Amino acid sequence: MRVDWELRACARKGHVTYRPDEPELAARLTAVTPAGQSWRCLRCGDFVPGPPKLAGPAQDAPLLLRGRALRDATVLRLLAAERFVRALLMVLIGYAILRFRRSEGQVQQLFDRAVPAARPLADVLHLDLDHSPTIEHLRHLIHTQPKTLLLVACLLFGYAAVQIVEAVGLWLLKRWGEYFAVVATSAFLPLEIYELTERITVLRIGALVVNVAAVAYLIASKRLFGVRGGAAAFEAGRHAESLLEVEDAAQVRHVSADGQDAFPPDVHVRH
User: Fold this and answer.
1) pTM attached to this predicted model
2) Residue 39 in this model has a pLDDT that exceeds 80
3) Residues 6+ away with beta carbon under 8 Å from 264
4) Residue 84 pLDDT class (50, 70, 90 cuts)
5) pLDDT tens column, 158-197
6) H or E stretch including 75?
7) Which residue from 35, 153, 215, 220 has the least number of CB within 10 angstroms?
8) Higher local confidence (pLDDT), 224 or 119
9) What is the DSSP letter of 17?
10) C-alpha angle 93/98/102, rounded to 5°?
11) pLDDT tens digits, residue range 245-263?
């Protein structure tokens, strides 16, 4: 069953009706319905009784999250969710380091119990804990000086802060968030490549591929750093898409027997 995401969005945020200044487009976006004068929602396409919520030139119509814009927003918010999860993990690890940095014996006992307990799951996932670089790093970390552990924890919190800022900007679909995400992600790519020179794992390769793809997608699709015309071309495209929203919404038109515009029979009316 196909999910009507535009209609679901209208159910959460409300319909968006718009009266363009151009008389021809305005006439095609309104209809006489059983509930009275109605205007066509630019997002879901249904006719909504009452006056339009917004008005102005067709090219200034709101750019709604539908079609391509909705797909772009979905990709950006998936990236934002991944950044939020990564930040949470960094905060938890940093907190654990601060919590136990002066309790080497206690941490060693906890580590000695945790590794054997994790072996059944590791066997299922085909992970070799005896030769895992992560386990080796943790073993080394246990015997590190408290001052060094404090520095490591601070670096982890700083990295988490960067991820949170990146996630917020992407989730809110802000252009500054897109720039920040590209710069921040690119800054860590050399480190990820260096880690692959030490040991190649599926997880490391996957992380590198995802980050490179994210950077390429943001630069190309959002026209960052002057690519494909830069910000001017991006804003021009947004205005063009706004105009298309109005024109597409105005395509459905029904002419009655007397030649007058009437309510299209295949379109729902939202009360």
Assistant:
1) 0.60
2) yes
3) 31, 47, 252, 253, 254
4) very high
5) 999 999 999 999 999 888 888 999 999 898 888 888 878 8
6) helix 68-100
7) 220
8) 224
9) B
10) 130
11) 555 555 544 433 344 444 4
Close Cβ partners of 133 (under 8 Å, ≥ 6 residues apart):
198, 199, 201
Residues 119, 133: Cα–Cα separation, whole Å: 15
The residues, any chain, with a CB within 8 Å of residue 54's CB and separated by 6 or more, are 16, 17, 18, 19, 61, 62
> For residue 212, which of 169, 171, 182 has the smallest C-alpha distance?
182
Structure tokens at 102: 């002066």
* β-bridge pairing 18-20 and 54-56: parallel
> Tokens 């319909």 correspond to what residue?
15
Q: Which residue has the higher pLDDT, 159 or 266?
A: 159
Residue 41, strand partner residues: 17
φ, ψ at 261 (rounded to 5°): -65, 135
Closest CA to 167 of 87, 84, 85: 84
- Enter the tokens of residue 78: 């998936």
Query: How far is the CA of 115 from the CAs of 12, 112, 165, 199, in angstroms?
Result: 46, 6, 34, 21
> What is the per-residue DSSP string for 238-270?
HHHHHHHHHHHHT---EE-TTS-EE--TTS-B-
